[in-house]
Design a protein that fits this description.
alpha/beta; 4-stranded mixed sheet; 737 residues; 18 helices
């Protein structure tokens, strides 16, 4: 597809063509013609730009391929439909003689569309004879047939790419297909999946058909990395644009910035301003921009600029292929009828790796070690284009189903935008310290500076939080602990014998003891916490007090955990998430966490969650801004940790603790406010704070039981029981998978 499908080459083995070769041939050829049913003859003649081709040319060129490489050499007595068509419909094959210049394909008013349809029928009749004859099983015929069918499927995608570009150029903005009536839900929150790297193999494994650019299979060394679990959305791209993404040269590669300025890029291709909003041209016509859908039709230059802005990068193609084995949910393909990408749905693992949109990688399109082009004209299919282009992976919503595979390498020039291309972010993942550095640097680079609250809990932060829990103003721990003492026997009655109790996060595990005391049938305790020191201390204390209990701590960010400790295998699982820590997440993040927890804990699991309830502002603010200043010390300790672990030079006395009730969002916000204009150094980078500017460190959302039940239901849980404490109100809920 990059430039043209003819830029790919063949890698096939005898036996690739199935016995039903003729039926397969008919299916693919009819599918191409079906794409043209809503097009007029005029639609199929026009060429909107040099990179695109008229639909009529695609119909003829794919027939020319079968005629040139299969019928002429392998069907005795075959007579070409029109010998002049070799000049008109050859694409790039220098060995086969001169051809119509690509930018002038739209000038071919003759042959007519009817003549091209007759040409296709003539070639189809010849192919029927060939595939019914004794040459049908020859290795070369089988290999060329597989190549020809894959080539035609690529042209099916090109037809839709080129028609969309053509229709977008029309002031009428015609629709290729009727608007879809089904509404899409919101996109899943963005997360990252950690991948270990190491010595891995990439490239086609030799089974079945592949283009020659997919091999030879070879070994590649990968450092540990993190890959975004879904594609970047329109809504996230709007934030990039709102922060001056198309006006900030420091985000762009030099050639990209020059191209963006020369061509006046202000948004992805096909976006059009509509007052204060945006519309986007699609195969369904001009439609309001849906912020949940993946952003599409962006160049490599735009993808690189966005990744830089987001504090990330694009993956290499080796990273992408290595990660593809962990894909959990495919996106849309051509046969799905959407003709548009779909939003990622909540759930664990890597989503949209296949389908929806081709994904840019930062890898230049180059031959693999040991690559050799095929002999003859077919050898021009691929190798001669291995310069100045970049690789995309995964397929798109206009790619025929079954066409792509993990080793499939698409490629385009870095400035091109008319293909169905999207963006998946990647990050380095060298160690826990590197992850901390990445998150801090990314957060300090945002317009509203922020740091994830999970980094509060080093040893000192955990100690300060335990002190907070003893404060008179801090009601959540007091209310929840009292409630848990009261209802623990009822919760214990819902826990099966021999169960494993999995706690998401672990401080002093005081509440855990209430559960363990009430439910002596628990056999395994598996706390998950990002702080090794705090986790080890809590695990040792529990093991000492409960000698018959198997304690299996897991050092992990519990929002990313992919597997439970082996000691839990085969046991009923009960999740435990007290403290209203879930209130630290946005509603979308909370739903994503609950979805991941559902997958981690498994079918039939029970999940006990503590949630703080909405109440009066005075009580809420006091709980997060105590008179003794313990919460302020807890907040500023985050700066001390940055100074210690990331070489920062924050002046802790130059930042004031603030707690604010945001009634609109139903959350308490914690900030550190700069008391003066200042510049701080972190990890070798400088970050400027103006006087009064804040570093947002935590949100604590407050719930209603009814609202939380809806949130849990959307994540695959059912609310079975709930218990509410006296004022100041706190709730415990029992969920079932």
């Amino acid at each position: 597809m990059a430039r043209s499908p003819d830029e790919f080459a063949l890698r096939s083995h005898a036996g690739d063509a199935a016995p039903e070769a003729a039926a397969r041939y008919r299916v693919v050829r009819h599918a191409t013609e079906a794409l043209t049913r809503s097009l007029t003859a005029e639609d199929q003649l026009a060429q909107s730009m040099p990179d695109a081709s008229p639909t009529k040319w695609h119909l003829a060129h794919t027939s020319w391929f079968f005629e040139t490489f299969l019928l002429g050499p392998h069907l005795p007595g075959y007579r070409p439909f029109d010998p002049r068509f070799g000049f008109l419909f050859n694409s790039y094959y220098e060995a086969l003689g001169p051809r119509q210049p690509r930018p002038q394909r739209g000038l071919l008013t003759r042959p007519s569309l009817a003549d091209v349809i007759a040409y296709r029928a003539h070639v189809d009749a010849g192919m029927e004879h060939l595939l019914a004859g004794e040459r049908a099983g020859a290795r070369e015929v089988e290999a060329l047939l597989a190549l020809g069918l894959a080539h035609e499927e690529q042209h099916q995608e090109l037809i839709l790419m080129d028609i969309l570009h053509l229709f977008a150029c029309s002031p009428l903005k015609p629709a290729y297909a009727p608007p879809r009536r089904t509404a899409d839900g919101p996109a899943a929150p963005l997360g990252f999946v950690d991948l270990p790297g190491g010595l891995v193999e990439i490239g086609h494994d030799g089974e079945g058909f592949a283009f020659d650019n997919e091999g030879p299979r070879h070994k590649v060394w990968l450092e540990p990395f993190r890959l975004a679990d879904r594609l970047v959305t329109n809504g996230e791209w709007l934030a990039f644009m709102g922060d001056g993404g198309y006006r900030r040269s420091e985000l762009w590669l030099s050639e990209g910035w020059a191209r963006a300025q020369a061509e006046g890029w202000e948004a992805p291709l096909y976006w059009e301003p509509a007052g204060e909003a945006w519309h986007v041209m699609t195969l369904h016509g001009l439609r309001p921009l849906d912020p949940a859908l993946p952003v599409s039709h962006v160049s490599l230059y735009e993808a690189e600029a966005y990744a830089t802005w987001a504090g990330a990068r694009l993956p290499t193609e080796a990273e992408w292929e290595h990660a593809a084995g962990r894909a959990t949910a495919d996106g849309a393909f051509l046969g799905d009828g959407r003709l548009a990408p779909a939003p990622a749905q909540p759930g664990p693992g890597l989503k949209q790796m296949f389908g929806d949109l081709w994904e840019w990688t930062r890898s230049a399109y180059a031959p693999y070690p040991g690559f050799r082009p095929a002999p003859g004209a077919v050898g021009e299919y691929n190798g001669k284009f291995m310069a100045s282009q970049f690789v995309l992976r995964g397929g798109a919503c206009v790619t025929p189903a079954g066409h792509v595979r993990p080793s499939y390498r698409n490629f385009f020039y870095p400035h091109q935008r008319w293909m169905f291309s999207g963006v998946r972010l990647a990050k380095d993942g060298l160690s826990g310290a590197a992850t901390f550095e990445e998150d801090v640097v990314e957060g300090l680079s945002r317009p509203q500076k922020s740091v994830p609250p999970k980094y509060f809990y080093d040893a000192e932060g955990s100690r300060l939080f335990e002190a907070i829990c003893e404060l008179a103003e801090y009601y959540p721990t007091r209310s929840e602990t009292a409630l848990l003492r009261w209802v623990a026997p009822e919760i214990a009655a819902a826990i099966p014998a021999g169960a494993a109790l999995v706690e998401f996060g672990s401080g002093a595990s005081v509440k855990t003891r209430l559960m363990l005391d009430a439910a002596a049938q628990i056999a395994v305790y598996a706390p998950i916490d990002i702080s090794p020191d705090a986790l080890a201390a809590a695990a040792r204390a529990v093991a000492a007090d409960y000698p018959k209990l198997t304690v299996a701590p897991l050092v992990e960010d519990f929002t990313r955990a992919l597997a439970l400790p082996r000691e839990t295998a085969g046991r009923p699982v009960v999740g435990f998430f007290p403290g209203s820590t879930i209130g630290n997440f946005t509603p979308a993040e909370a739903q994503a966490f609950l979805t991941r927890a559902r997958g981690l804990l498994g079918d039939g699991a029970t999940f006990v969650v503590g949630i703080d309830l909405v109440k009066n502002e005075e009580t809420l603010v006091a709980a997060y801004d105590d008179a003794l200043g313990v919460t302020a010390a807890f907040n500023r300790n985050l700066l001390a940790r940055i100074n210690r672990e990331l070489g920062g030079d924050f002046d802790l006395d130059a930042f004031r603790h603030r707690a604010v009730w945001n009634a609109t969002e139903s959350r308490i916000e914690m900030h550190l406010e700069s008391t003066k204009a200042q510049t701080v150094q972190v990890a070798g980078r400088a970050f400027a704070f103006s006087a009064g500017e804040t570093l947002h460190t935590e949100n604590s959302y407050k719930f209603t039981v009814e609202g939380f039940a809806r949130l849990a239901e959307a994540a695959g849980w059912r609310l079975e029981r709930d218990w509410v404490s006296p004022s100041p109100a706190f709730a415990l809920v029992l969920l079932r998978a």
